[in-house]
Amino acid sequence: MNWDDTTDPDTDAAGERLVGPVADREDQAVEAALRPKDLGEFIGQEKVREQLDLVLRAARARGATADHVLLSGAPGLGKTTLSMIIAAEMGAPIRITSGPAIQHAGDLAAILSSLQEGEVLFLDEIHRMSRPAEEMLYMAMEDFRVDVIVGKGPGATAIPLELPPFTLVGATTRAGLLPPPLRDRFGFTAHMEFYEPTELERVVHRSAGLLDVEIDTAGAAEIAGRSRGTPRIANRLLRRVRDYAQVKADGVITREIAAAALAVYEVDARGLDRLDRAVLDALLKLFGGGPVGLSTLAVAVGEERETVEEVAEPFLVREGLLARTPRGRVATPAAWAHLGLTPPRAHTPGNGQGDLFGA
Ligand SMILES: Nc1ncnc2c1ncn2[C@@H]1O[C@H](COP(=O)(O)OP(=O)(O)OP(=O)(O)O)[C@@H](O)[C@H]1O
């Protein structure tokens, strides 16, 4: 994966966030050790696992290379991990690159022509590849062939190059941005969902075992509940809680230790951090729950408009704490409850405000 060429609003605009979904330097250093190695070890995503298992078993039984696979879903849900599992299950080597790293068709031709038979090519952020590279990929995926252009202008010639059969695993956070001709060339598309708290609890237990950290069931549940449906965040919170347990207690993670540690890092019981809460706080206390325009809300919390929109809002909307309406941002009843505040009478149900939530 190419970590340097991605712009991440979580780190660019709001400093490093403990609950940001994109990998930071420390994540990159430790994630390799925590990745499940086969489908049996991969937690959750039952449907995807079952379907992929069939695809891979069938290919193995035929002695064929597996079909191309498209994985879509938010960062940190396990797309890279699954691509490595696909290679491992097929007994094939894997090459890892990313859309932004492929600027020219020639870059892609160089990678494709050096693949071994059956190799898995993992192309992260496939929606960010350049157009000419994308067109070259169509032919490579379908016919295992590329045309390498030699020379320029009227004298340029296309030299066809045969490729060994390979499996492309494309990953994207935005499946909707992929041009249909590219999307159609994948034999299997899997959409990865956010994880349930009980699944994240298993992720935390498994990682704690690998990191040699003692944790009880309630401690794991506490961390899971604050991990925003994302294994990467669960693993990161676990590491911070482990530090706290070592320094402030006897190293064992219990519910109390997890809660106290994450209070230090300002990650609340639902996984909201300081920025998320500042947005909700302003919306409720300054604007009576809205509707209020995004720019006004951003000024009120002293952040850029983009930071509020791209960093804080998606999770608040997903959690059902904030709604985007044509008239502006509106807090839901759950937001009032979460901050322990009572909505003014005008915001209680049955007062004509229901239409703001599309009721
Ligand atoms: N199903 C799972 N079971 C256990 N651990 C998981 C699972 N999914 C992800 N993880 C853990 O979460 C971390 C992040 O996963 P991964 O790098 O595969 O995410 P990703 O979707 O590829 O993220 P990005 O899009 O940012 O590259 C990994 O270290 C892995 O240990």
TrEMBL record:
GO terms for molecular function: ATP binding; four-way junction DNA binding; four-way junction helicase activity; hydrolase activity. It holds the Pfam family RuvB_N. This is Holliday junction branch migration complex subunit RuvB. It comes from the Bacteria. Residues 1-13 have a biased composition (Acidic residues). GO terms for cellular component: cytoplasm; Holliday junction resolvase complex. The gene is ruvB. The keyword Cytoplasm applies. The lineage of its organism: Bacteria, Bacillati, Actinomycetota, Actinomycetes, Kitasatosporales. Belongs to the RuvB family.
